[in-house]
Amino acid sequence: LCVCVCVCVCACHSSEQSFNRESCSSEQVSSVATLLRLASIGPTTTRFLQISTQSARAHPRAAGSGYAQSKWVAERMVEHAIKRGLDGAVLQLGFVGPDRRTGAANVRDRVMRFVSGAVQLGMHHFVAGASLLLFPVEDCAAAIAQLSAAQSGDGTEAAAALKPVKVAIADLMQRVCGSPILCGRRITEVPHAAWQDALRQLSEENPMFPLRSQYMDGMTAHRLAREEELCQCGYNQEEVDRFLAFLQASGQLGAVA
Question: How far is CA 215 from CA 90, 198, 206, in A?
């Protein structure tokens, strides 16, 4: 059995990392088309697994970005191939968080950029009462491994079994600020105006710089549905310490003054 796990991403354009819809759609859709063609002509049985995003649930005209739109198109291509006999599945993931056991994280995602950038700045700001929904990466990896087996479903059950954890940004930043990993470095919560002034003068070396326009109001929240408000809380102090240690080892937190 040959397993093809397809996680196509698009290139970002401009210093603000905005998505070019035409380029994004071309890259993702053409990549999926190529992999589907190769899967159909391979000498062995192929299990095709498309890793997609929950933002692709909407019709492409309603999906906000070219990224989500191209994911929607790619999903339809895979579903069509499955109907024609391909052994495959589509798994939609939400916002993926750090590994709670090892601390390993995507240092370029929006949350890790904010944490790293705030540590370097020595200040942070967030919307009161805001929360994030994160899917711990180890849970996502387990779901992908499960779906990689032949005839293991179309991804619907695996996606339903994946449960996000709710992370209150106030709690997250309190744990970051109090972590022994920072060796006493001080990170102060500042008013909105002071935060915006700091971002306008932000160094290009700061991890937040490429996405700074998204942080002008601080770390923004996900809009939670009523059932999502009941999600288990995640990332306790030990787990936060682990991903901070990973960020430190990766050179994301800057030098200690």
Answer: 32, 11, 13
The answer to whether 66 and 56 are in contact (CB under 8 A) is: no
Q: Are 112 and 99 in contact (CB under 8 A)?
A: no
Maximum distance among all alpha carbons in the chain?
62
- Highest-pLDDT range among 54-63, 67-76, 139-148, 224-233: 139-148
Q: What is the pLDDT of residue 97?
A: 96
Residue type at 156? T
pLDDT tens, residue by residue, 95-115:
999 999 999 999 999 999 999
**Tokens of residue 155, six digits:** 């991804």
Asked if 135 and 109 touch (Cβ cutoff 8 Å), the reply is no
Distance between first and last Cα of the chain = 53
For residue 167, list its beta bridge partners: 132
Q: Closest Cα to residue 206, out of 118, 144, 142, 143? A: 118
Q: Which residues of 206-216 are buried (b: 16+ CB within 10 A; e: fewer)?
A: bbbbbbbeebe
